[in-house]
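Components:
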Amino acid sequence: MTTKVDEPASRPLRKDAARNRALLVQAAREVFAERGLEASLDDVARHAGLGVGTAYRHFPNKHELAKAIFAEAIDDIVSLAELAGTMDDPWNGIVGFLEGAAEAQTADRGLREVLMGVHDPEQMEQINDRISPLLDELVTRAKATGAVRADVETTDIGVVVMMLCTVADITGDVAPDLWRRYLPMLVNGLRPGADLPVPPISNDQLRTAMTTHKQRLIRAGQNAAPSPHD
Amino acid sequence: MTTKVDEPASRPLRKDAARNRALLVQAAREVFAERGLEASLDDVARHAGLGVGTAYRHFPNKHELAKAIFAEAIDDIVSLAELAGTMDDPWNGIVGFLEGAAEAQTADRGLREVLMGVHDPEQMEQINDRISPLLDELVTRAKATGAVRADVETTDIGVVVMMLCTVADITGDVAPDLWRRYLPMLVNGLRPGADLPVPPISNDQLRTAMTTHKQRLIRAGQNAAPSPHD
DNA sequence: AGAAAAGCGGAGTTGCACACTCCGGATGAG
DNA sequence: CTCATCCGGAGTGTGCAACTCCGCTTTTCT
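Structure:
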């Protein structure tokens, strides 16, 4: 839960600098988890009990800091998908992945935003590239064993996770675990039963949907590209 | 679908003024439906082919305009709940309400925001006051007939609608009807079956969750209160 | 038609939040 | 004790959305 973010270790940092860097990383974890990437570097610095200048000394900008911090969490999600793929019973794999993914994302608003590609569509696509093949295989196997209905697609998994995240997003402060109430309802819907009235979307569609979506909500365009003001 | 927003009719508007007012209302409907209340009055004016000044001549600010426009849509949702309550089979009532509410909200991002209390918590609470008693009664009856499980609460209805709205929110541009795919999965979860692992939240909790939620996403505080800059 | 009232348009003003810089002063290393 | 390194936070730059102002146009009235 608390790991160090690897630094190039060119020249050993001065003692206070090292301490502050650690404070910043920890503060960023907490702040981004709670308020998402909309928090400013100033917020992170203040939460760490440091000045803004210090924050900018250690990280060129907010997104670099975020990238550094979320790299592990992303790897964890990928491992989760891998783990799910190695399970004997694909159904257990799917449910396990859903629960784990929802758990990770509901606990961390920033992670949610990263996975949804709110700030960096490219990064999201890379993550998608890593995860979706794993889920594809899992879903295929689950269909073969009859654990899930034939018309279930991999994108359904993603959509279900999103729905659970919504619940956590909205009710997280009031009832952090409420999303678990709706998990069984949703996974049950994947099992064989009545057919679904509308076909799933393709992975590409889901991607573009995710990347274009919040651009509108979280202030259009923003400066995903560099050149803040040169 | 196209109704006039009642004006006090103190002195009859000049011909061009009346026409422009209608244009503004229509433009606002379209713009708010597509982009939500984040759209500026400038946007609405431009979309109507008019100047900003004209917009401000007719409406003191964006929120007044929005209030005028969404009043009907809100009434429609309430009527939907009433209609659902009058149905003989409470199960049909519930499903009908879910579908109708989701349909209305997924078609109109602005309406969604209003119902979620993103911009005006008070207004949302009023709406909640009008709807939740109706749904309470409906759910009670549905439980009595065994159509839904005993541990289902009225707040579950609201949460389900939210989840469907999320799907529409994200995938609306790519596949406007995709949310319907997940409707049966969710309503099916309300039927008798395995128990849910987590208890529902109270209506009050849901309210506060909704009002506090997006304040953070859509720029904290903003100027829900008047005094923009006096 | 002609004048006055009503309305229009959109450049410009104000407020605000965030990203990022800068440099005098503090702190740690040798 | 000295100096390189680092800290802090006031200050600068930028962008955006809300809203105003006033010269000009259109309608209405007689």
